[in-house]
């Protein structure tokens, strides 16, 4: 959070001569921060934090403050276009919305007829609050194939928490945890999902103890009582080590374990396979520190785990999530005030119901790509992307002919980018909905101009587990841009789904809200709606799992043919697993730590945000740099078995010298050729997506931990001369 200001609205209006203001909720990231949007001459003149917001209390980040620079950007596409030259030729022609939607509808109906609805894949990226409409149109069409980031981001937390304790446990910052364990997360930069950095920082100011598990010394790590600098990708072993201490020193909550958990005995047996000597050897964390952290976490009540995506982008994804839940559970912090709560959402039509999952015919469900491999993911309608690329490139197990990408730039954000690019080049018909002609959009047949959050009415934070919904109010109209919700509502009518959709999207918002007996017009006048707040619900009703218990031993995974107990898997490429490869590629590469100004591949064209991060950066320890002949600021080559890219070296003394950390999401909108330099610094050219390297239950690709070499660019040039 970079800015904090209490807005005295009248004063601002008078001093700056604004004409009016609208209160709304930002969504430059996953969204949630309340904003006051000041208007002058029909345009957004200023955006400020809304102190009344229950989520961020008036704080905003750099991205939120730059929202108008995105909305009014000169390069934005503001009307539909169709490609008139070859793919990536940059030759586009303006078309009308009617022509665009009619063409898309005609293709959908043709492919459905010729190859079955499963040959059409809808896809979105991270949470942009359009998932409900995308699943609805896909399910009603009969395609089980919706491509998301859910295999390696947030989806695993949701799936594993549903099978363990019914819903995703959320840190209860409102009741001030006394101990926070921040694990693979950097909330004060990333403000992810239901969380914002502000309440976390306030909890620390109130004296909460802090444990941070991160290979890098982040700002929170610098404030921590204990910082555990683990070997990347060994989180599962570390969690098992902590559980070992807590169980064997009797620091767990006996009543919770006895009355409310399932599978304690086999679970303890599994944990006992991980004594601290073994865990230290795996994780590189000294055992005294593991013991210290485990004791602090287990004996300071209430406590919560602020978990992040780093633990999910690993081969041990689902079990990492489960192990952290076991830590929350056996210490008695589940659904405790100031601990980790199972919030009740407001009583509205939920995302799953809106998404019409029940309407997908059973025989179509069975055709979900990769469904036989990644059975937990598939149960929750999540796909493994490689299965889609294979279906396009090799037509196995059946051909995918059409991709409709809505808010996603997969050539930069999915593992094995070269393969992703080839799939997007080959697919017969590609539609993209976006703000800009990104490297992925440059391969499309039709690009639709999407509305930003400033240009739409919507129920914000509808999908989150913090228990609130917030009104997002339309402030401006830019060109012919339309929200994804409106365009899909319109398209649905053209492919014969009219009876399940609405004449205009406001009616859909009324539908979402109808269980509360209110309409969008009513909600628009409200600040927010919150679900019922109640702690320790399980004491009355049990947990919403097959055994009604907190499942340390998962009966659901057992039925699916997986190990019911959480385990640790070594990263597919690592000093232990592939020592020969490690000789050739002697650094562990981590990727993707969030940057304050960017959201994945976004915002590189917004001047004030690009000024924060001019060039792609790879962090390296000075000792390692000296060994490789790298000076700070040099352009260097990072290379894995799969490819190489260039980034600039920045020294980071906090890293283990065997670890380097590269940024992700890089492309260069300022480069005018249609490739926009997508393959120069894009770290996903190095990551792997082979199915056997992915998490067996969720299909998470292992993009955080791989082996690489790193050397100065001049060295490469010389070798080529
Ligand atoms: N190596 C590596 N790769 C990673 C990660 C990592 O840590 N390391 N992180 C991964 C994670 S966690 C995720 S979630 C994925 C994210 O992957 P994506 O979601 O595919 O990534 P974005 O770059 O955010 O792509 C979003 C695109 O949608 C557009 N957009 C934004 N909002 C809207 C909207 O409302 N409507 C429409 N139609 N378009 C919109 C933006 O302009 C942008 O081009 O990336 C992953 N990739
Ligand atoms: N500004 C900004 N905000 C964002 C995003 C963005 O792109 N930009 N993306 C959004 C999305 S989709 C997501 S998923 C969230 C993610 O947000 P977070 O969960 O906070 O994730 P990151 O910042 O990517 O990574 C957190 C930390 O994990 C550490 N790490 C790397 N490898 C490992 C490992 O093996 N183990 C452990 N324990 N730690 C490791 C990194 O050093 C980093 O400090 O952020 C969201 N918010
Ligand atoms: S944290 Fe997200 S919602 Fe809040 S101001 Fe930043 S971009 Fe907007
Ligand atoms: Mo994500």
Short description:
With 721 residues, the chain is of the alpha/beta class. It is 33% helix and 17% strand.
Number of strands: 29
Task: Please tally the helical runs, counting DSSP H or I stretches of 4 or more residues.
Answer: 30
Query: What's the CATH topology label of the largest domain?
Result: Rossmann fold
Unique ligands: ligand MGD, iron/sulfur cluster, molybdenum atom
Query: Which bin fits the share of residues in helices?
Result: 25-40%
Cα(first) to Cα(last) distance is 47 Å
Descriptive account of the structure:
- It is globular and about 70 Å long.
- The chain is 33% helix and 17% strand.
- By secondary structure, the protein is α/β, with parallel strands linked by helices.
- The protein folds into four domains: 9-71, Phosphorylase Kinase, domain 1 (2-Layer Sandwich), CATH 3.30.200; 81-154 and 349-461 and 468-530, 3-Layer(aba) Sandwich (Rossmann fold); 166-344 and 537-560, Dimethylsulfoxide Reductase, domain 2; 579-720, Barwin-like endoglucanases (Beta Barrel).
- The two termini are 47 Å apart.
- It is built from 30 helices and 29 strands.
- The strands form eight sheets. Strands 7-6-19-18-17-8-9 form a seven-stranded mixed beta sheet, with helices on one face. A six-stranded mixed beta barrel has the order 24-28-25-27-26-29. Strands 13-12-11-15 form a four-stranded parallel beta sheet.
- The chain binds ligand MGD (2 copies), iron/sulfur cluster (SF4) and molybdenum atom.
- Molybdenum atom is lined by residues 126, 149, 153, 309.
